[in-house]
Design brief:
two-stranded antiparallel sheet; 61 residues; single chain; elongated; 56% helix; 15% strand; alpha+beta
């Protein structure tokens, strides 16, 4: 999760996403064009959510 690890939106037992306001602000601070961040972050977020929830379901596997 890197730099956005502390910006997770969670429910008991599940990750539901990032705080995208914080993610866009981080991207801007790093010089990422806002249009690119707006296009890419939701796609990356969906993969991150799926993988994190998958790992929580099978912590040893």
């Amino acid at each position: 999760m890197g730099r956005l690890g502390g910006q997770l939106r969670v429910l008991p037992g599940a990750v539901i996403g990032w705080d995208l306001t914080a993610a866009l602000a981080l991207g801007a601070a790093l010089g990422v064009p806002p249009t690119a961040a707006a296009e890419l972050l939701p796609v990356i977020e969906a993969v991150m959510v799926a993988k994190n929830n998958e790992q929580m379901e099978c912590p040893n596997g």
